[in-house]
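Standup, Tuesday
Yesterday: got the pipeline producing structure tokens again.
Today: sanity-check two examples.
Blockers: none.

Example 1:
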Amino acid sequence: MQPHPKAPRFIVNLLLLVLCLDAQAQTAVSAVTYGTLTDNANITQGGITYLERTRTVSTVTSGIGDFNFTGPIATSVTFRRNTTAGNANNTTIFYQIDGSNRDYGTYEPNTSELFLSNNLYQGVRNPFENGTGSTQSNIERIDFYFSGGYTVNTNDALVFFDLENAGNFGDGFRIAAFTAADGSGTPTAYANTGLLVAPDSFGGPVNNPQLTSSGNYRRATFTNGDNLSGTASGITGIGTLELVGILIRFSDMGVSTGTTIQGFSLMAGDVAPVAAADLVNWNNTTYYPTNTSAAGAGYGNMDFMGFGSRIARPVPEPSTYGLMLLGMTGAFLGWRRRRKSVNAPAA
């Protein structure tokens, strides 16, 4: 008797890949592939010299494969603050510097444009920390709005980066998708209570836009809310830090493929909604605490890089997986016919 032919290995491997895409939750980013560097004329504004460099992120690598950034970008990014009881109305940015303390990144006039730039040279430091101190921003929620809505595709994802000391792997935060918004893009209904991302859920250090595993950074504080066009105060070095990343699919957030959303929101990890409706009013101190701290596990120390406003998709994209599955089905049927031919009794 002749031995049964074995199933082609690529069929087994492809099936495992598809199953993994469906089974995994949010996952660490393990590598970044950058595109071409754009370097424009330097700008000096508010006491900071910007080298006006942008190196786009082409793909990120994670435990569930590579993702690129071919999805839409948010129409707007809005920072919701609670500045009652004398709370500060500040924004502290951080930025990667060269040997002359110049910001490698680009000058952005406000925090919305900072996030829409998707430039990993800079970001917002401790946005969710409450208090009256000069570096406390009192931001309760950051809303990413897609005008006209967006219908979620299979395995659509979002990617965020944090700035960390060596040996740390990201700080915690909550993320939730909203399904309704008013004319200004303010959320009026959320899909659910969202996903709590635990501290140290990110990957190890990945290359920054200078293509090194760590870099030197400074911080600067602006005292007029989202406006970054004024003169910065408290400009100081914050040392050598590392870039770490995390990939979150909409399915991880409890949002199914085919659901139309209006956007998503980032908030501190100590935001503790009982129901989705509890997320709507960022001034409700029952669910949005006004004592969020950057110390210990206070959830106020997440440093968001100016990234995350564009939707990421798997490489290859789901349509390609469909074609691959059709090919796999054809190969499997061919293998079955060949197996039957081998097993057929001799005439």
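Example 2:
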Amino acid sequence: MAVEATGPRVLVLANQKGGVGKTTTAINLAASFAAAEVNTLLIDCDPQSNATSGLGLPKDEHRLSVYDLLLGAASAEETLQATELEQLWIIPSHKNLVGANVELVGAEHRESRLKDAIAPLRDRFHFIVLDCPPALDLLTLNSLVAADAVLIPMQAEYFALEGITELLGTISRIRASFNPALEIEGVVLTMFDERTNLAQQVTAELKRFFGEKLCATTIPRNIRLAEAPSYGKPALLYDVRSRGAESYIRLAKELMSRNMPTSEQPAPDELNPQEDMENAELDKSA
């Protein structure tokens, strides 16, 4: 049974360093929430539109997108698109979104356009996941102002540790100027290889700094995660038994346990997307 929404947790996936698995995390975390029968919205705020294509939406210059939303040319309801997962929706991106950085420069309330635009949708979802560019521009600023919390994907390497300081400084400035309630949801290690000494050392350093904010779940390097976007599917629809899919399912469970009252969390038998997907495949072949 699906859980009725009582207002969403708006999570922004942010890291000013590129190539850390931010979009992969946005797609697969949102899909894992939805597979647990929790109404979820993914908003693709990156002009590269990788989250959009990663959920199977083909390029379409006539389709309404985040660009239209930010410019006030369409409502959030008009931009919603269904996905292959019953309880997952997306507001897609388009390459023309890059122009919003210029067009919004002189606009009134330019930093809160996204927050204001999605306000009418807040009662429909338990989680709203925002994927933003790996740069501090107006698109990222809008995402951080609209969010309740930041989830930081990062690799277990020393350059990533250096970059985290810059990101924390950005979050501090956003709190001071635009969004005093913005929290750090956590740090999740991606492309993780627990066999290396470096990974263990970086993990220990992050644990000392972030404490319980460091997610217990880590995301391994996994070929199925890399392959899935080319098929327009999250990993749990591409190969639900892959290590990558299973890791994101565990991450979704971890975040739900933090953010949903016990009475509202899906029952344990509703948190088994592997079984649900396999049963669906059996039904198709019957």
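Quick observation on example 2: The two ends are 24 Å apart (CA to CA). The domain at 9-285 is CATH 3.40.50.300 (Rossmann fold).
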